[in-house]
Structures are given as C-alpha cells and as structure tokens.
User: What shape does this take?
Amino acid sequence: MEIIISNSSEIPIYEQIAGQIKSKILSFELKEKELLPSIRSLAKDLRCSVITTKKAYEELEKDGFVSMVPGRGVYVSKINRELALEEERKKIEDLMEEIIVIAKTNNILESELKEIFSILWEAK
Amino acid sequence: MENVICIENLEKKYDNFTLKINHLEVPKGMIMGFIGENGAGKTTTIKAILDIIKNYKGEIKLFDSVNKEKAKEDIGVVLDEAFFPEILSPKDINMVMKSSYKNWDQEMFYKYLKQFNLPEKSQIKTFSKGMRKKLEIITALAHHPKLLILDEATSGLDPVGRREVLDLFQEFMQKEENTIFLSTHITTDLEHIADYITFIDKGEIIFTKMTSELLEDYGIVKSSREEFKSIDKKDIVCYIEEKYDVEMLVSNKKSFKKKYDFVSIDKVSLEELMVLMIKGVK
Assistant: This one.
C-alpha cells in the first residue's frame, strides 16, 4: 500500500491519510476484512505522530470504512460501495450548489463556470 | 488518560531565575516535545524530574509514584552533557550497564552499535560528537525503559543521524505503554513525530497542546502597517513589527480569514511560533 503525505499541503495530515485509504477501499485495492497497519506502525512508517494516525483511523471508522478492534487491529469494513459513492456524490452536489449561488449573485455565466471547471479539471 | 510524569506546583528559585511549573502532565504512550529558548528552564525541569536537582517546592510523580528510586529502572535518560567517562569503550559500557540494570539487553545494545557503525572496542574520546550522542541514545534504550527522557538529544547530530535516531524513537513507541519526553530546539524534528508540545518561557509553562492542533489551527499573518491598524488586537495572539511588514500570530486561521479577508495567512512552523511567542508583543 502506498500513502503519500505532503507536509506543505493545507490539508491536515490525518485527512490526507484517511482520504488515501478511503480511495483505496473504494477502488478495491484494499479488500473487505483486510488487516491494516496498526496505529503505531503506520505512524512509524509515515514518520508522523501516533495521534495523527489514530485520528485518521477514527475518521475512517466514523464513515464506516474500517473497524478498530481493540487488541486485534484495524480491519477494512464491509462497505456498500454504491452507497459510499452516493455519499461522495452528495458532497459534490452540495459544494456545487455553493458555487452556483456565488456565480448567480455575481452574474457569472454558466459557460464561464464550465470553462473554469475544465481548466481546473485538466490541471489536477 | 494515564500520566507517566505529573508535576504539581513545582518551584525552584535561583539567584536570577525561578522555575515555576503549576501543572504539567505527560500522558502514557505519547511523545511530548518540550520547547523553549535557551535558559527558559527546560534542562532545570528535566533535572528536577530526574531528582538531579533537589530541594524544590511542589511534587513530581513518575508512574504515579513520588518514589523516584523505584522508577529508575524504567527510565532511559540522555542529557545534554555527556555522562560516559572518555576512556571507556562501548564494550566497557556494556559491562557497567549489565551490572546496574536488571533489564539490560546486551544483544540489543550490540545490534544498535552495529547499525550505527560504532566501534565497540574504541575509547569514547576517539568518537565524534554525533557518535557519542548515538551511543548515549542506544544505551538509554537498551535497558528497555518505559519512559525516555531526552534533553537536546538530537542537537549534536547531522540531518541523516537525526533521521536515524527519530526512527529509533518511533520504533520504541511501537509499544503502547512507552512514552517519550524530549526537549529540543530543533523543532522540525517534533513537527512530525511529537503528539504534544509543551512550550516553556522564562521558567513558566505557556501551553501544552496537540501538535496537530497547533500546526493546523495557528497561522502567521503578514500585513502592511495600514492593514494592521484595522485588525482588532483581540483576534491575534501576538505581533512583531518588522521593517517592511507586521507579522502576527493567530490561533485560528479559518475564523481570522473569514473576518479579515484582505490578509494572507500562512501555515506556521513550530520555529516561527516559538520566535513570535517569545519576541512578539502581546
């Protein structure tokens, strides 16, 4: 498993870790019931603090992606992939709605928005 | 959470310096970084914890007990000043330690000597500063302590040596009951691995916070003098007027940005945070 952390990013490190594990679960790179590295070994290998990896796993557990079994380890949960993706789509919709509100109050056209979007999309 | 070190109302007076720690707790299983400028009281605090300094007011508990003699077997220590006689070799140290610690792990000690390329039969006086530090650190680890107390343990090391030593510390932390309390002025080491940061200034603790919170919430704002006038001083922690701009430390980047959208806010490093808190106007 590869996890790439940027220390200069504005995204907190625990979110970077949680996000990358989450996408590995959604893309089936990590499979149901697979044992993930412990909080402490992950902290060691990523050279970050224990609190950071603990927070990442807690975040993933809250969203139903992993379960932490005391004394046994952290496992990939059985997830309903469709449902999880649906939630992600819902998040996108909410953010887009915000964008549309800003655009409309400033008389920015739909075509302009689309243009900005494709530029940003290409750049990522 | 269980605490491994607990200090209450510690006070130690010197002619021109007073150490006064009302409260300090080091939680079990965590790495706590202890930062502050030279002379702020880091070493004095550590010496009080280790009973090297006595006659202080207040109470220091280690592993929930005031009896420090009992705790000694479970503590690994590296102090700023060297403590091995120059004429000894690592091999001699092995002999000495074997008779003083019941948990001394000879195998581990020799494994680390090899790993760090420290010649076992050479006298310490032939060692470089970095080699001496590494030797002290592996000696502290090789009696399987539950608490490591380190005073400026990484400061004599080059970046590669620091990385190796930090990896050792994190290996030590694989055991859930192990704890590290380390003072340093090389704050970048702590940004990555420390769970908590305690900041001491002029003999008093200014704060203990989670490292992640400090780095995620605090920010450094740079503005013109004109813009600075429009900022409510209640919204900043402290500021420094520089020649070309004003630098401010804020404790909540997000809400500050919302209120003052004309300024730019950067992430703050522990080093910048420390300098601003010491030099800045509050």
Notes: The interface with chain B takes residues 7-8, 10, 12-14, 40-41, 43-44, 47-52, 55 of chain A (CB under 8 Å). Helices of chain A lie at 13-26, 39-46, 50-62, 81-105, 110-123. The CA atoms of residues 25 and 31 of chain A lie 7 Å apart.
